[in-house]
Amino acid sequence: LKGALLSQPSLARTARGFLPAAGEEVAKAMMQWPSSARRRHSADPSRGWSLIHEHVQDVLDDEPAQQVQSGPSRLVNVLLSICVAAVAVGCLGTLGVAHLPGQKRSEGPELRRAKEAETHSAVLTTRSGAKLSLGVDGGRCVVAQGPVRVSLGPPASGVATGFDLFAAAQQHIVCFPAVGREEYQLLVAPMAGTVDAEDDGEFGFGRGVTVGLRPDVATTAVWKLQAEVRSLGLKFDQEEPFRVLGLHILAADGVPENVPLVVVRPRVPSWPLDVQSGNKSQGSCWPELANEAPLIICRAKVSDEALDLVALCGLCAGGGWDLTVREIGGSNREVASIHGATKPWVAWDPTVPAEGVIKKWEIKLQSEARALFLAGGQIGNNLKGSGKTFAWQHALAQRRLADGDGDADEAFEVDGATIQVVLVAGATQVPINRKFEDRSFVEAAGRGLADVVLVAMVVAVVGAAAMLGFLPSNLSAALPSASASLGLLQFLLFFGSVEKAPVQLDVLQEPLAFLAPSDPMKCLLCVAVGCVAVTLAHGWSVLQHLAKNSKGVYMPHSLKFGSWELRALPFVALPAAAASTTLVRRGLISYFCVVGELAGDEADLPNPLLDLAIGMVVLIGLLGTAIGVWIQVHGMFVDDLVLSVQLPGGEGTIFVDRISDELRAMPVGAGASAVFGGWTTTPGWCIGPALSSIFELEYQGLPERGHDHGSWEAVWPEGPWEPSRGAKRQSSTDSLEGAMRPSYSAGRLSMSNSGSRLSSSGSRLQEGMNRTSSVGSTAGDEAGGKFRDGLGPVAGNHKITAQIRFPYKCSNQLVIAGVSCMPWIDVAFPGTSLRLLWASDPEGEFKFSVHVGQLSGPLTSGRLGACFEWGDRCPYRWPLDILAKVLLGLYIGAWPYLADDNSMWGFALHVLAVICPLVFAILVLKYRPHSTLLDNLSLAAACAAVSLTTASAQYYYKGGHPAATIGLTVTLMVLTAVPLFVLAAASALVASFALRFSRQDMQKALVTTIPKWGRDKDSNRERKATNVKVLPIKDGKVAMALPLELPASTSSIPMHVEIKLPAAPAGVKATLVQGEKTIMPIPADLLLLPPDHRTYEMKTQRPVGAVMTQQGGVLLYPAPEHNGGQHWREAVRAFLGPKSPEVLKEAIAAIQEQGKRFGDLTFTTVDIKG
Fold first, then answer.
1. What is the rounded CA–CA span in Å between residue 33 and residue 367?
2. Order of strands, edge to edge, in the sheet holding 283-287?
3. What are the φ and ψ backbone dihedral angles of 261, each rounded to 5 degrees?
4. For 1111-1122, what is each residue's pLDDT tens digit?
5. What is the CA radius of gyration of the chain?
6. Which of 59, 181, 736, 896 could potentially form a cystine with 29 if both were Cys, beta carbons 3.0 to 4.6 Å apart?
7. Residues with Cβ < 8 Å from 105, sequence gap 6 or more?
8. Mean of pLDDT over the chain
């Protein structure tokens, strides 16, 4: 068991011998224990045993032990513990042996040091058969054949004959002193039993045998060595990773033997290996310490010649480590390797490239345990019945030593570490990714960015919760800034985490790195889950609509499948494109080996064709979607199917279908903000949910001057709008709609009062009338024109007449569907009233006034609604957004290949990656794709930040000076903060507006929704608020009033008088009701039919009052011709009949009394209850 503790192979053999059942597992556990720790504690057996025990238990107990173990399992564990203890105690106990039998010297410090060196010594067999043990202070020596096929000669001229340095046929002694020592000593001793203890010669190597050291191979000087006595101190050349010595052996027969002795010391103490040219006359290599990652630059004097490069690895000399040298670029092939053997070096012989060209290799060092874990995933446990497995659990081998000033320790994580080697000729410049001393500043900036993102996300979630809480809100107000900020963050995260990304970007994005899956398949899986979640939410909304609207013949265009999904696509396009590009690159490299670089762990993908297929499908799908949407949108404008019009009462333009068949609620704006000014007055902040399907209305106008057909910038007038061809036929033949209409009132509603009723023919449009007088047209006949001239300012903004086809269920009473205007009264229709009005109108003759901002169709509100958001001015913004993010994702995924591409095409791509986002930012500010300045500013800032990020990455990767780190980081943070700030502000304002609007009463909501509501035309005098009760007519008679009161404003002075029945003992008495809004009964035909030459007089005259009972009501006009040729008092008598003379008397008296008090503007409603 001698030396088992300090020798992994011996320890493994010992474990296998003692533990045939579990020996392999214990052996692997022992071999995973760092050799430096074994060396450090070999002199202390008790401490060494304690560490061995702890390490083996940690490895074997990697998975949590079961709470209840069976009897055999416990027995096996006990036996295993006893066996491991026996092995460790046996190994450590041998360290106390004084000396080998036959030794004549007593135990002393020199001999103890010799014993320590012996465990890592090289055993050299001379030509005469003698065996010599050679060691170095605190290090390791091995005997190895040279790494190259032929002799390279010495690294310095004038070497003595007898050396075939680095040649594969030459036996070498390679020594690795303890790291950090500037001076080392060699110790040579004969192996035990090879020298006669009584006659060991003058120097202890045997009679007539001398061993000497040639400290300078360029001379023949020899230092004679004494057996088991250290040599004189030797020093390294600070610029060289190794020193070539010679071991001169003179046998008893007088024949000399020269063996090359190479003493290796990495020039960077914390690096586990070093690289140097085999022949310095051709070129040399040196580590580039200014580079952020380990880099060795080899520079040859002449190009187009073979140059042997030698990698020297001290860890590999002890076995248990894998070292691979893989070419970067081209075929990505492995050019040299060590797999577990005790080889101290490897070599490869590339051809020196021409000047200006760079060749690169990557040297990767990993333990056998790590390689086994990466290959198989788990290491099985052979314990009987346990079924336990444990993953590779190897503590990273570290080499710690003080730096030049001795004030800090630098640790290099060896296991899995990589060192890059580049080969150039002449004065070729090598790009350096320089270390930066401002890491703490960049780390602080990254944490600050994470905090800002967290705040913006919290505020955005609050804004989204406002909508999910069924408050009136419009999240599209925050969509522009959300798309810009999220796209920028995704670019920073994925670009900062990609392979070969500059360390500055890596450090900056590290606090948010958990948001960006590093594995491309996991990233695509997250994207797929997000898309499925959006689709499920969309489907749930469709089901809710169908449940609320019975069989739901008509579906709002915004619920068409594809509309929600296209709106969500910009939020996942960039990560999907980046992950797909990575899959394509990996698949191409692994299967075809034609492009780019791939790390050794990923070189052999299990199914590269699957990765290639998935990546190509996603990329083609994204690009095809964006291009297809662009083509469709362009065709809509070429054919004038979509128009851009000014939003009435707003400060921006919106897009509407030329043929519209759906009615929105009147857009409700958030109003001006004290902080942000007019930002919240633009169309993107308006709330306007779909309320009803209507009969088609077609635009009949021409664009304004200065714009041609087919241009999205052409602004069209608000009208005229007319029913499209076939609309009238549809209104009478749509059997499906008629079957779904609830039976509220059997008869057609017509305008009526007690004195005169409009005949059926009078309430219908005359067949053969001019099309300009048809229902729904904004240009009526002469009577209609005179009628509109007398209307108030509300009617001026609502010139389109819409006819309900199928109203959707609406629960929000504050959204307004339309208005009906007469010179003396304006009546508003809340969204909750449409179903009652529609149910009481089986023939579909009711119509009311709306404005152009309420019209929508299948083009602007359907599947492509994402291109026509009210917050956008340019309909091509959506496809451009997708294309830009896909291209950025392509650049991120191809960066590991493009970073080292010095060709003209590679340079052009890098320049485009910097210039294009910057040009895009300038175009955003010029053409303003969004309707607000802040949204355009956030998009421009995001584009500028992308440009700065790509420029910074190339600057750092190509060796730019790190002094610019702070300036670049601050600029990037400022640009990134702009869209995040706009997003937070928009989300907060959306939530605030939703809460504020939901707490309004109806009159405040009307003033907010309808421009100039409650104002007279010729004066700024406010109108009086009142309510209107709609009176339908059944079979030519007054029917029961609808259970519906509509808000209104009137230029009359409304008074409300109440008569309660049965009469009190004092008799019937009319009482003036104070503090309540009056209720004005108005026949449905008078309210909802458009004016023509037959209805003009009735609509323009101001009534003096009304009488209302539970069975209906009557309007009273001052002129007899409007009361059926009789005075209004006779009209009251005809309505109430002869049965209630006292009620009739009080009603007439109340109307006369209020008229005398307030004049002709008085409108008195007599409400008879009981």
1. 11
2. 283-287, 295-300, 417-425, 359-367, 321-328, 334-339
3. -120, 115
4. 778 888 888 888
5. 46
6. 59
7. 99, 111, 228
8. 75
